[in-house]
Specification:
The chain has about 450 residues and is an alpha+beta fold. The protein is built from eleven helices and 16 strands. It comes from Niastella yeongjuensis.
């Protein structure tokens, strides 16, 4: 028993969620009670509820009645913004959408816009607490909840910050709900701390913006820190309800292995180094954008193949032409699209041959390599003349899908090379029956 207690003491406590979801896409109540609606010099005392709603789009909605002050019933419902204040603190800007008359009075509904923050975000804090929806499962470092120990922590850090991401206690139950119903549900609780000193709102916002792009690339679909809370001396100082876009749940491929997280810490640190150059970071995040849209099948396989070409063209110009200067000036514009991909693969030390696992693609390739067949299929999709339409019609759905997978693999390997990744990755193009091959990068 003493040995068990000693081992438990060495395991860190898991992050405790400050906002929870029990079913997919459930409405989250932010506030119930009285607040002030202010418009220039006019103030109205109101009472109602403020809720966060996932669907049809992310919205912070306000349903309320006016207790004291002039009615809004005769005022035009337009985009005019009114301040919503709780305890004299500005929460956000309200845009009225509609009103409903009943025997009990008039109820108004609107949405909050702008920076939606409750509390004084100018106050520096010790730590930032947040929740993350729809992030895939990782078998991470050990954490405990009471006497329950599980492997559920990812630690990301650089020279300034430490981020811990902990799976919620009932992760498997909640994830199965997502698989059944889709939508959104919180699966991880996160904490951001600074190695020296306290955190201010702006630096936290910048770091969590980077985390959005990083986790989206790791996840294969967009996710983000949400319901962000600043805490000082264990007291809640402010809460922020803005969020980057998060994709509704859909089973997608991810290059990151479920059971190996050892390379993620260095990958995160290198990701932040790229952020120091605005142009480089713009190229990186734009590439990730095209990659995610293609990976989740926006526009089906045909649309994904076109977006893959966009990403590969950007990566070629960024890495081959601008960063490494393998080709200079106008010469880069005279290279065929397939040769651009070959040069990109040469730079990252990867083969341009079609993997053996893509048998349907090999069948139609007729001796062509990966870059050439991808470009040929893309051109058949984009240039819709009679010959191209006939060629596209003759390509099987399986071959289209495998072309998409090969293009996505090229993007994954290029981005991992750019971020100097040293860990393992799951190769989407090398499968044997139901066994996925995990390779060292």
């Amino acid at each position: 028993m003493e040995i068990i207690e000693k081992l438990l003491k060495e395991v860190p406590e898991g992050n405790i969620p400050m906002t929870t979801t029990n079913s997919p896409s459930e409405t989250i109540t932010i506030y119930n009670g009285q607040f002030i609606l202010k418009e220039k010099d006019l103030q109205r005392l109101c009472e109602g509820s403020i809720t966060f709603n996932w669907l049809p789009t992310f919205q912070t909605r306000v349903h309320f009645k006016i207790l004291e002050g002039k009615s809004l019933i005769n005022e035009q419902m337009n985009n005019e913004q009114r301040d919503v204040l709780i305890d004299s603190s500005l929460l956000g800007k309200l845009i009225l959408l509609n009103s409903i008359n009943s025997d009990s009075g008039t109820t108004y509904m609107g949405i909050l816009t702008g920076e939606i923050t409750w509390g004084d975000r100018k106050i520096q804090v010790d730590k930032i607490i947040f929740e993350i929806p729809n992030l895939k499962e990782f078998i991470g470092e050990g954490i405990k909840t009471g006497t329950n120990v599980r492997k559920g922590r990812i630690t990301l850090e650089n020279d300034k910050y430490i981020i811990t991401l902990d799976k919620i206690f009932d992760f498997n139950t909640q994830y199965r709900k997502l698989e059944s119903y889709g939508g959104y549900i919180f699966l991880y609780s996160g904490m951001l701390t600074k190695k020296k000193g306290s955190l201010n709102f702006d630096e936290a916002k910048t770091t969590l913006e980077c985390l959005h792009w990083f986790l989206s690339f790791v996840n294969g679909s967009r996710t983000s820190a949400m319901f962000i809370k600043g805490v000082a001396n264990e007291q809640l100082i402010w809460q922020n309800y803005n969020s980057r876009h998060v994709d509704q749940f859909k089973t997608v491929w991810s290059w990151s292995p479920k059971f190996r997280i050892d390379g993620l810490k260095d990958l995160w640190s290198n990701f932040l180094l790229i952020n120091k150059d605005p142009d480089d970071f713009d190229c990186l995040t734009t590439s990730i954008h095209w990659y995610i849209e293609a990976n989740k099948g926006s526009g089906y396989a045909e649309g994904s193949i076109m977006m893959i070409q966009n990403a590969l063209e950007l990566l070629f110009n960024w890495q081959v032409v601008e960063k490494n200067k393998i080709i200079k000036g106008s010469d880069s514009r005279n290279i065929t699209a397939s040769n651009k991909i070959r040069l990109l693969l040469f730079l990252i030390k990867q083969t341009h041959e079609i993997p053996d696992g893509l048998e349907f693609l090999k069948q139609i390739a007729d001796g062509k390599d990966g870059p050439e067949i991808i470009v040929e299929i893309r051109n058949a999709i984009v240039h819709g003349n009679e010959d191209k339409r006939k060629k596209l019609k003759d390509i099987s759905g399986e071959a289209l899908y495998q072309s998409m997978q090969l293009g996505l693999l090229y993007i994954e390997l290029t981005l991992l090379y750019i971020m100097n990744y040293k860990g393992e990755y799951t190769n989407r193009c090398v499968t044997h029956a139901s066994v996925i091959q995990t390779e060292k990068f």
